[in-house]
Design a protein that fits this description.
eight-stranded parallel β-sheet, four-stranded antiparallel β-sheet, 10 helices, 30% helix, globular
C-alpha cells in the first residue's frame, strides 16, 4: 500500500493530493474471456484544499496497459494545485485522470455547497436499475448462477469463446423471465458472431457488447445487426466517435476509459447528438467509483453499475441498492 504525500501552504490553507492503493476481495471469482480475478485493486485519490476533502477512485486495467504502479506514477508527478481544465491537458484519458478528476468534482461540489449533478448541468438523479453480471463459467455453473439471480430484471452474461451457445442456453434456462445482455469482451470473430446472432435473438438477448476486438471491428460495418451492438473497448472518449460510425448502435461510457467525469459528461452529450443509444458501465470497483457514474446514467438505456454487488465488502458509506436499483450517492460518499 502506498501513500505518497506532497503538501505546501497556499493562502494559509493546505493543498494536498494523497494517493492510496487499496484491495477489496470479491464475493466470488470473477471470470471473463481474458482471465479471472478474486479481488478488486483500486487507486483512491484525496484532494485537500481550504479544509475540504474531495475523493475519487479508479480501477487500473491491464487491457489498456495500466497498473496500480503506472497510475500512481502518473498522479505523483502532478502539481498539487492542478485544476480540472489543466488536468485534461496533462493526462490522457484513462484510470489515473479519472481518479483525480472525480476527486476534484467532489471537492468543487462540497466547496460550492451544490451537488455535482447540478454543477455538471445533468438532471436531478433518481435510482436507476442496474444489470447484474454473471461471469464466464461452465454451462452448468452459469445456469445455477442465473437461477440464483433469476429475480433480477436484467442479467449481463460474460461470454467470448467458441463454446458460448451452451452457456447462453443454460443462462436462459436458469432465468427464463430476466432480460439478458451479452458481453463478448472482444472474444468473437466476424464468422462466429454472424453464426451466433440469430440464436441471440431467439433467446431474447436485448443487446450484444463488443463482439469483435477493438481495432478489428471494421467487419461490423458490413454485417446485418439484428440486435443492437454496443461499443465498449472501441469507445474511450470523444476522439473515438469518428471511428464508430456505421459499426455500433450504442456506446458504453465508463469513467475509467473517458478519464473522468468531465470527459464522460461531454462524451454523453456528443454521443446523444450523433444519435447513439447509451449504456453506462463500470470496472469492478467500490461505491466511490460508481457514484459519479450513477449521475451519468440518468436516462441511459442500459446501466451496468454492479461493481459493489460483486465485492465481499464495500466502502462505508456505500451506495444503496434495492428493488428500485442503485440510488444516487449521498453527499458524504461523493458529489
Amino acid at each position: 500500500m502506498r501513500w505518497p504525500r506532497c503538501e505546501f501552504p497556499r493562502a494559509q490553507s493546505v493543498v494536498m493530493i494523497q494517493i492510496r492503493a487499496e484491495t477489496f476481495p470479491l464475493a466470488e471469482t470473477f471470470t471473463i474471456s481474458r482471465g479471472a480475478k478474486t479481488e478488486a485493486r483500486v487507486v483512491m485519490v484525496e484532494v485537500t484544499r481550504d479544509g475540504i476533502v474531495g475523493r475519487g477512485e479508479c480501477v487500473p486495467y491491464a487491457r489498456y496497459g495500466e497498473s496500480i504502479e503506472s497510475v500512481t506514477a502518473q498522479l505523483e508527478g502532478l502539481p498539487e494545485d492542478i485544476d480540472r481544465a489543466a488536468l485534461q491537458q496533462v493526462l490522457a484519458a484513462g484510470a489515473a485522470r479519472n481518479a483525480l478528476d472525480c476527486a476534484l468534482w467532489d471537492w468543487e461540489a462540497k466547496r460550492a455547497g451544490t451537488p455535482a449533478w447540478a454543477l455538471a448541468g445533468l438532471p436531478e438523479p433518481r435510482p436507476v436499475m442496474t444489470a447484474f453480471t454473471l461471469s464466464l463459467d461452465t454451462p452448468d455453473r452459469m445456469r445455477a448462477a442465473a437461477a440464483r439471480h433469476a429475480a433480477r430484471p436484467l442479467l449481463k452474461i460474460k461470454l467470448g469463446s467458441p463454446d458460448d451457445m451452451a452457456r447462453l442456453e443454460a443462462v436462459r434456462a436458469g432465468a427464463p423471465a430476466a432480460a439478458i445482455i451479452v458481453d463478448a469482451n472482444e472474444g468473437w470473430s466476424p464468422e462466429l458472431y454472424a453464426e451466433l446472432a440469430p440464436h441471440l435473438l431467439r433467446l431474447g438477448v436485448a443487446m450484444v457488447e463488443q463482439p469483435l476486438p477493438a481495432g478489428e471491428d471494421a467487419a461490423l460495418a458490413g454485417m446485418p445487426r439484428p440486435l443492437p451492438v454496443c461499443a465498449d473497448e472501441s469507445c474511450h472518449d470523444r476522439t473515438s466517435l469518428p471511428t464508430l460510425s456505421g459499426k455500433y448502435d450504442m456506446l458504453n461510457i465508463k469513467l475509467d476509459k473517458t478519464g473522468g467525469f468531465t470527459e464522460a459528461v461531454a462524451l454523453r452529450a456528443e454521443a446523444q447528438a450523433r444519435g447513439y443509444r447509451l449504456m453506462v458501465g463500470c470496472m469492478v470497483g467500490t461505491s466511490l467509483a460508481m457514484a459519479p457514474a450513477v449521475l451519468l446514467a440518468q436516462g441511459a438505456e442500459v446501466v451496468d453499475l454492479d461493481g459493489p454487488l460483486l465485492l465481499a465488502r464495500d466502502r462505508t458509506p456505500a451506495l444503496r441498492y434495492d428493488a428500485d436499483g442503485v440510488h444516487p450517492p449521498a453527499a458524504n460518499l461523493w458529489g
